[in-house]
Amino acid sequence: MTRRGILDRRSVLKGGAAGLCGISAVGIMRPAYGQTNVNMQLSWLHSVQFAGSYIAQDRGWWDEAGLSVSLQQGGPNAPVEPPVVSGTALVGISAADYTASAVEEGAPFKILAVAMQKNPFVIASLPDNPVNAPGDLVGKRIGMALANTPVLQALCTLNDVDIDAITIVPTQYSAAPLVNGEVDCLLCWETDLPVAMAVRGIDSVTMLLADHGYAVHSQTYIATEDSLANRRDELVALLGGEVRGWDAYRGDTDAAARLTVERFPDAGLDLETQRLQAARQVPLMFSELTDEFGFGWWTDAAVEENIETLALLGRDVSPDLWDRSILEEVHGG
User: Fold this and answer.
1) Mean pLDDT over all residues of the chain?
2) For residues 123 and 190, what is the distance between their CA atoms, to the nearest angstrom?
3) DSSP bridge partners of 129
4) How far is CA 101 from CA 88, 113, 118, 189, 206, in A?
5) Measured between alpha carbons, how far apart are the two ends of the chain, in Å?
6) 128 burial class (0-12, 13-18, 19+ CB within 10 angstroms)?
7) 47 — phi, psi (to 5°)?
8) Half-sphere exposure of 260 (CA within 13 A, CB side)
9) Conformational region of residue 298, where left means phi above 0, alpha means psi within -120 to 50, and beta covers everything else
10) pLDDT digits (tens, 9 = 90+) for 239-269
11) 56, 138, 270, 312: least buried by Cβ within 10 Å?
12) Which residues are 218's β-sheet partners?
């Protein structure tokens, strides 16, 4: 999703209700003597989208590894790439398309781990007029940001669908046009507009683009080549904590949602929205592959699929954009 296309996700992820308090969190971690201070730049505003990191910090797993980690909030005025390039942040949370764009401009990035095994983009529709496959889009009105037209075009190309047979309706990032019958479907993320509808008791049908050939790794961990060469121990410790945090998240997503809301009481986060989002993230982040090899893993075949999709988005990348060496060390080879 383009940066402009995700700006309105802020209000969606907060939900319509006032923020609710959940379980209490452990107090702010203070760095112990001899610990190394590092920053990790998040890709967006604080929410359960990053709850695995909150768990790692809350349970002191980075402290145990000799790191004092500060999680830097992202947002429309806090892009991921600059602090990672400058060395202010050791690691950033990004996506393969953003990273590919930055590398084309000379940034020395490598993708170290892939949190979302499946891209979160979906076509959301209502049960009485569902979109279950790309071919169902023919003759439909789809609400979306015009900046995301390349995403729709890539999906159509991958599935031999004529994009000209689909009516694109420019909309704000809201479920209202679909609910009000102004469009037949929406291009959005699995974890936001469908959740917003579910909180209101409205059922929806979601078609995951990743299930139809759209392969773009999302919520990826990036670092510079210099950090890979000179700060490997810190990278291993940081990603090691992430692995433990996300594995714990998977074990109890409701607790992860409560921790997130408790940790950021001024963010206006709605507990039910965070709880539903947390549950919907699980099948995007975990699979038989991660069960076998561990959180964040990817295959060479997945890289080739990403390269194909990124080419349709106008990004020319090579397999060496992905570097699994840190993850291999985290998972014991």
Assistant:
1) 91
2) 8
3) 126
4) 20, 18, 20, 21, 28
5) 33
6) exposed
7) -165, 180
8) 32
9) beta
10) 999 999 999 999 999 999 999 999 999 999 9
11) 138
12) 95, 116
Residues 307 and 97: beta-carbon distance below 8 Å: no
User: Are 48 and 276 contacting, i.e. CB atoms less than 8 angstroms apart?
Assistant: no
DSSP code for 314: T
- Calpha distance 226→223 (Å, rounded): 8
Gyration radius of the chain's alpha carbons: 19
- Per residue in 293-309, pLDDT (tens digit) is 999 999 999 999 999 99
Give, for 135, the enclosing helix (H) or strand (E): none
Global pTM reads 0.89
CA–CA separation, 34 vs 45, rounded Å? 30
Task: State the Cα–Cα distance between residues 66 and 61, nearest whole angstrom.
Answer: 9
For residue 299, give both structure tokens: 């295959």
- Report phi then psi at 145, rounded to 5: -75, 135
For every residue of 37-49, DSSP letters joined together read: EEEEE-SSSSSGG
DSSP state string for 283-307: HHH--HHHHHH-TT---HHHHHHHH
Long-range interactions of 174-180: CB distance < 8 A, separation 24+? 174/8, 174/12, 175/124, 175/202, 177/143, 178/124, 178/125, 178/126, 178/143, 178/204, 179/126
Indicate the helix (H) or strand (E) that contains 224.
strand 218-224
Q: Are 181 and 126 in contact (CB under 8 A)?
A: no
Q: For residue 130, give the H/E element and its range.
A: none
Question: Would you mind telling me the total number of residues written for the chain in this entry?
Answer: 333
Identify the H or E element spanning 164: none
Structure tokens at 333: 């080879």
Across-strand partners of 91? 40
